[in-house]
Amino acid sequence: MTTSNYASEHETDEGRVFTVTGGDWDTIVSGTDPINDERIVVNMGPQHPSTHGVLRLILELEGETVREARSVVGYLHTGIEKNLEYRNWVQGSTFVTRMDYLAPIFNETGYALAVEKLLGITDDITERATTIRVLMMELNRISSHLVWLATTGMELGAISIMLYGFREREYILDIFETITGLRMNHAYVRPGGVAQDVPDDAIRKIREFLKVMPKKLKEYEDLLSGQPIWTERTKNVAVLDVTGCVALGVTGPVLRSAGLAWDLRKTMPYCGYETYEFDVPTHPDGDVWGRYQVRLAEIRESMKLVEQALDRLKPGPVMVADRKIAWPAQLAIGVDGMGNSLEHVAKIMGQSMESLIHHFKLVTEGFRVPPGQVYVAIEAPRGELGVHAVSDGGTRPYRVHYREPSFVNLQALPAMAEGGLIADVIAGGASLDPVMGGCDR
Amino acid sequence: MTSPTDKPNDGGVPVPVTPAGASSTAPAEYPPASPAGRGMFGNQGTGDVSGYGGLVRQRQPIEEASRPYGSYFDEVRDALEEAYPAFGDAIEKVVVDRGELTLHVRPERIAEVCQVLRDDLALRFELCSSVSGVDYLGADERRLHVVYLLTSMTYRRRVRLEAAVSVEAPHLPSVTGVYPTADWQEREAYDMFGIVFDGHPNLTRILMPDDWEGHPQRKDYPLGGVPVEYKGAEIQPPDTRRSYQ
Q1: Which residue of chain A comes nearest to B216, CA vs CA?
Q2: Which chain B residue shows the shortest CA-CA distance from A384?
Q3: CA–CA separation, A315 vs A172, rounded Å?
Q4: Chain A to chain B, count of Cβ pairs less than 8 Å apart?
Q5: ipTM for this prediction
Q6: Contact A366/B244, CB-based, under 8 Å?
Q7: Angle CA(A260)–CA(A225)–CA(A431) in degrees, nearest 5?
Q8: Which of A249, A432, A255 is nearest to B178 (CA)?
Q9: Does the beta-carbon distance from B245 to A373 stay under 8 Å?
Q10: Rounded to 5 degrees, what angle do the CA atoms B209, B215, B219 make?
Q11: Does A388 contact B147 at a Cβ distance shorter than 8 Å?
């Protein structure tokens, strides 16, 4: 506890101000009078290692019991939705991929599906493109759940799992790099298909990953599931039942951990998920333990899906045939390291003036999208990711709104935390798996 | 320099008709991309030698759907009509587009309609998936629209409610009493569009700083920015930049 250059006690409405930068709880509360200062307000975050990013929590405490919890968001607001309105429809995918940075493929796919629905070309998307989307989404779901496991482990004091989770995630990021060229912010799934085909090298890497991963999952379970500290910190902690979840709009693993098998891949299928074989894991308890179990099981289900998607990959185009929409998608890596279609460049620069004009129009002006609005929802790692897209008939989105599961789910934190211990705020918040980039957009 | 169509026809000055083919390549728009609804590059006041500045956009109102709507939409409408006596007064129009059902609701009735949609056994829209705002500047007198996306987990259906309010009186009842999940989403709509949800427990800004002025997602919100020089050329801020519309 130090006196500092922040607000002094005279500048607040009530009570004394302490600035705490670590230390022991007893030392911190020793400065307060236990009778008169029974309630203290603790401001946790926005810079705090246990709040999953720039989330700020205002906690009213009585001893170690949380009486009121309020979360403050918006620290990572970057105006992506507004920015989209000043770029053409294809450029949009480079923006939305930066929202929820742990699940970029989902942001892109949701956006692409919405634009395609507006264009009325949903049925024209090639089978290979759809299969690649499923493949990428499920790999992304695994990597996102791994980060969840890693960060939650760290927040609850299990440092090893943090290292292991991030280590295994590297496998997937490596696969993503092979396929898209980038570890994150891929802009790979585009309206009309995907940016380029999956190279053979990536298929080999994915097969390798599928061989390695089950053993690793077993390791995590050996490390955590029987461990008394882990079970103590997670079982019967931050319970939220189905009624609470639905009222507060909580979807995804948190809802499923309360026992309701609501998974958009099954209940309102998209991208052909109805033709895949997989289960929706649930858990009856609705506590942090249940969410841990559900997420681990979902990694296994995603691996099944990845395997099936790999088996289905038949040669074919990865972009719609409509040349008024499709960007060149047969790319090779150029000298600058960027994806480039040499054949296409040769054609537009050397052979066909019309192709050059067409390419120029498509890239600078973009395509026009018939006016109207759509809502497309997909099952992201954190729950229902909804894209509400409005077109005015122009070449740029008129309005795009993301129904971000992180944003909606975070509302449930007070319901989970109030009345519990301050340590359980961390466990509860972590179990929601909020990603502030997605929450604040 | 204004384009020729801006000038009133004050004797002798011929008013050019919309160039042929304008409406076939550029579909009739609702709402127009620019408030002026004219031109292709969004640049007003600079010399236009392309002729595209003369393009005039057609506005087309959203058409009301006629029965039968198809899919489950008729059932939803019938069930709502039966369960909600004030249906005729509350529902302004029913639109079916791209396989989605939209009920345009009078703003003051929105909470009631939500209540019925949630509680009626034949409707059961238990989950309010999304609340967002859209600003239809220049296309609608009541330009601020609030769009609610309700999901029925029982029947696996979705319905969209749309309520329009004006900038002068941007008030409508909050649905937080029916769907607590609308809390933050209504705050976001307030923050971004200045739509006031009466009865909301804590209607404050959520994404922008508390002392921010204005509502950034409104279409007339100035973007600001300065011209940037890049390789000798001057690049204008996005809203004054020459761009396709």
Answers
A1: A82
A2: B129
A3: 23
A4: 134
A5: 0.82
A6: yes
A7: 45
A8: A249
A9: no
A10: 145
A11: yes
Chain B nearest-CA distance from A232, in A, is: 30
| Continuous H helices in A71-158 | 80-84, 92-96, 104-119, 127-155
- Is residue B53 a contact partner of residue B19, using CB atoms and an 8 Å limit? no
- Strand boundaries in A222-282, DSSP class E: none
Residue from A408, A410, A416 to probe the interface with B (highest B Cβ count within 10 Å): A408
Amino acid residing at B221: Y
**Which residues of chain A does CATH 1.10.645.10 include?**
80-321+368-440
Q: Measured between beta carbons, which residues in chain A are less than 8 angstroms from residue B149?
A: 375, 386, 388, 403
Q: How far is B12 from chain A (nearest CA, A)?
A: 34
For chain B, where do the domains classified as CATH 3.30.460.80 start and end? 73-198
Where b means 16+ CB within 10 Å and e means fewer, A137-157 reads bbbbbbbbbbbbbbbbbbbbe
Opening angle at CA B149, ends B146 and B152, nearest 5: 150
Is the CB of A77 inside 8 Å of chain B's CB atoms? yes
Using the Cβ of A117 and the Cβ atoms of chain B, whether some distance falls under 8 Å is answered with yes
Which of A141, A220, A207 is CA-nearest to residue A405?
Answer: A141
Q: pLDDT tens digits, chain A, 441 residues: what are they?
A: 444 555 444 455 666 677 777 677 777 667 666 666 678 888 887 877 776 778 888 888 887 888 889 888 988 899 899 988 888 898 899 999 999 999 999 999 999 999 999 998 988 899 999 999 999 999 999 999 999 999 998 888 888 898 999 999 999 999 999 888 888 888 899 998 898 888 888 999 999 999 999 999 998 888 888 888 889 889 888 899 999 999 999 999 999 999 999 999 999 999 999 999 999 999 998 899 999 999 999 999 999 999 999 999 888 888 888 888 887 767 776 666 666 777 788 888 888 888 888 888 888 888 888 888 999 999 999 999 999 999 888 888 989 999 999 999 999 999 998 888 888 888 888 898 889 888 988
CB A108 within 8 A of CB A186: yes
Question: How far is Cα B88 from Cα B72, in angstroms, rounded to an integer?
Answer: 20
Question: Which CATH fold topology does B73-198 show?
Answer: Beta Polymerase; domain 2 (3.30.460)
Contacts of B242 in chain A (CB under 8 A): none
List the one residue out of B48, B51, B43 whose CA is nearest residue B236.
B43
β-strand pairing of A189-190 with A65-72: unpaired
Mutate to test the interface with B, among A58, A241, A398 (most CBs of B within 10 A): A398
Phi and psi at residue A39, to the nearest 5°: -105, 125
Q: Cα(B126)–Cα(A241) distance, rounded to whole angstroms?
A: 15
* DSSP class of A172: H
Are the C-beta atoms of residues A294 and A281 closer than 8 Å to each other? Answer: yes
Decide: pTM greater than 0.90.
Answer: no
Q: Is A407 on the interface with B (CB under 8 A)?
A: yes
* Distance (Å, whole) CA B102 – CA B84: 17
Residue owning tokens 């392309």: B50
CATH of domain A80-321+368-440: 1.10.645.10
